[in-house]
Every structure is written in structure tokens, then in C-alpha cells.
Amino acid sequence: MIVMKFGGTSVRDKEAVERLIKIVCKNSSQKIVVVVSALSGVTDTLTMIAQHAAKGQVEEAINLTNGLEQRHLKMAEELLTGEGLLLKEATETVKQLFAKLNEIVRVISLLEELSDMSFAKILSYGELLSSGIIFRAMLKSGLSCAFADARNIIITDGKYLKGEPQTDLICRNVQELLEREFLTNDVVITQGFISATAEGVGTTLGRGGSDYTAALIGMAANASEIQIWKDVDGVHTTDPKKVKKTRSIPVMSFNEAAELSFFGAKVLHPATIQPAIEKNIPVRVLNSMQPEKQGTLILKDELVHENGVKAISFKENITVINIYSMKMLNAFGFLTRLFEVFGKYGISVDLISTSEVNVSLTVDSERSLDGIVAELSQFAIVSVNSNKSQVSIVGKNLKETTGLAKRIFSAVSDYNITMISQGASDINISFVVNRSDLTPVVSSLHKEFFE
Ligand code: ADP
Ligand code: ASP
Ligand code: MG
Asked: Is the pTM of this model over 0.70?
């Protein structure tokens, strides 16, 4: 049994869905769970709709929902022409979903109040819409396919916008579902990203969370493989949107992939990797537009032997916080106190470097920054540097690779490096540059290691 997850670009229009169906049909000698995202751009539009509603801008919000409705109706029509009953079902489902969404939007606009719970509800419409149409297109193609609502399976805690999966419940639900549905069907289609609490209140797994859904289902069902279908043929040496001559990495380890995504490569949701690691399930990243390409296979660490630099990732917008305190000299407890402040605000620190009296660290969000700075200022002198970017070199056994630092820093010697951290992990060396230097820095590094 395999899980195939198709991201927004892989379901964005009629042609994309037809490619998806061809890919599923080609693999139909085995049982398949298909996990689909919202059509590309839809979750962003739903976010805008929620924001308009929260400000009472009902007309702007409804204009946007109308636009989305037309896009989905058009797609249903294009995919299901000549299929009277399926087209009618799909069209009615879309219309019912929009009637409900518009109702929610009007209520929120009236109250001018958007709770996390209602925001999560609005966001869930993207996947509900896409899955309803794609399900019927699969039936049209002759696949024996069942539809499952992810909100009955993927159970989270009550953090509505980024729910914590409750794995025991998910395992039980997935196993029950598949035992039942695979008796009479070859394929089960469900939504990525959306989930619910045990009491049935809608939640989401956080933006980009469909990969996570696929991994959770793969883990629960003990899948032989989890395939993540995107618009790139695997994990590349760096973001192909940043540098031209990138190439796909055939094999990488779980740790490398997780590190790469933690340090900014948007190709995989970081937590995607976790449930798969637990069960040693291989994850394959593939290109739905070029399905014949081999993509990237992500395996458990012991199976990946190749040392050295694998990829470059980056975070475009980060903030460096410098904390200076004479009191730190020969003092203990200073770092504890410092990190308590970040802990209190729930902000995670990416890089850190320390000297006798100085600590520099990076965060990738400006959320709560004012509060953090105010609290730190009670016992230290604090300065904040925005407009920075963080670059990370990811690979295996980097600490043992002699001459690596020289190669990295010679390649970027024309640029100012504000902070370096080779640290704790053997698989990453990171440093901070001015945001305006990010593109040339990544290009130079890429040239040095991969061109
Ligand atoms: P989807 O939404 O279809 O699941 P995403 O858009 O989230 O897919 O991820 C694919 C995108 O990730 C690519 O279009 C690419 O620009 C970006 N990306 C960033 N870093 C990398 C990388 N190292 N390798 C491949 N893609 C990357
Ligand atoms: N549609 C959601 C998003 O855009 C989830 C996903 O595509 O992974 O964030
Ligand atoms: Mg995505």
C-alpha cells in the first residue's frame, strides 16, 4: 500500500488533475491513498477572505469567494463533461460548500471578529473543494475509489491553526478506514492539511501541512512508500527558483532532509519527515509534470553513505538579536534566564553563537519581538538587526570534511558574514548575510559545490 500526496500545483487545473489520474492509474496494481491539497493559490485567497471578513469588508470577501467558486465550477465542468451524474454531484457539492462559506464570511464580517477556530474553518474549504472534484474525476476515469473526510481521521489537539496530531487515534482511524474501504476499492482519496479535534471541531495542521497528512497516514497504515508529488523533480541542490543550474538529489537521509527543511527549503514540511522516520518508511519526492523522472528518495540515515555537501538552504527574512551583558562574565544562569524569555513567548531560536559577554542569536519571525526585547533589556543591552538572511550548507559528516570551511568562505569572500554557526549538528553549517546579498551568496556557493 502506498500514499500519494499531490500539492497545490499538482491539482491546479484540469490538465494537472488529468496528469494526477494517469499517475494513480499507473500505480494501481497496489492499494493507494491519495491525499490532495487545495488548488494552487486557494489557501492564500481564503486567508485574504478571512482577513477582509475580520475587518468587516464583506463585499471584498464575497467578491473573492465568488471568484473561487467560478474557478472550481469551471474545473468540475472541464473534467466531467459528458458525465451527467458526476458533474451534477460535483457542481452541487461546490455550490453547497460556497453557500456555507459565504454564510460564515457574512457572520464574521458582521461581528468583525475572527477567532482561530473560524479562521481554521475558512481555510478548510480549499481542500474540501478540491477533493470533491478530484474524487469524481477519478471515478470518471474508472478507478474504484472511495472518498474519506480527513476530519474524521486526522485528530489533533485544540490548537485550531496548527493542531498537534494525536497519533494513537489517527492510527486507529486510518487502519479502520482502510480495512473497510480497501475491501471493495483500490483507491481512497482524502484531503491534506485539514483535521479535527476528538470532539469534531475543525482544525488544520498548519500551512503546507498536506505533506504531514501524507506522512501520518503512511505511518498509521504502515505504507511501503510515501510519495510527495510536487512541481519539482525532487529535492534540489538549492531552490530552483533562486538559482538556475540546480539538480535533483537522487538519495538523501531523513536527517539531511529534515535539516534542509528546518533551515528554510520550502520543498518539504519539516514535520513530514517525523512520522515516516518512526516507521522507516521511504519518502519519495516526485514531479507530477514529469512523472518519469526519478526524483529524490529519502531513506533512514544508516542507508545513506555518501558524505559531504548535499544542498544549500536559506531563510530569506531572519532577525539577528545581539545580547550584551557585562554581568555574563563568569556568571552562571545567564543563558537560562535568556532562553526563558524566548520560551515564555514560544519563539524558537535557530542559530546561536556566544562569547564571554555577548550572545547572538537568530529568529525567523518578528512575532513577539517587542516583548522579548523589553524583557531581555531588563538584564542586558539588546540590539536587533532585521534585513538579514540565513544560509545553511547541509550534508553528511561535514565536521570531518577537511577544507570545507575554506571552500565555503572563499566562495563568499566578497560578502559580509555577520554570524557563523557550525555547530551542534554534523550535517549543517550556517551563517548570516545581509538580505541584499542573499542571491549572489547562494549562487556563488552553488557554483562552488555543484556546477
Ligand atoms: P506543493 O505545495 O506542491 O506541495 P511546494 O510549493 O510547497 O509544493 O514546494 C515546492 C517548491 O519548493 C518548489 O517549487 C521550489 O521552488 C521550492 N523549493 C525550495 N527549496 C527547494 C529545494 N532545495 N529543492 C526543490 N524545491 C525547492
Ligand atoms: N493548502 C494548504 C496550504 O497551502 C496545505 C498544503 O497545500 O500543504 O498551506
Ligand atoms: Mg504547498
From this structure: yes
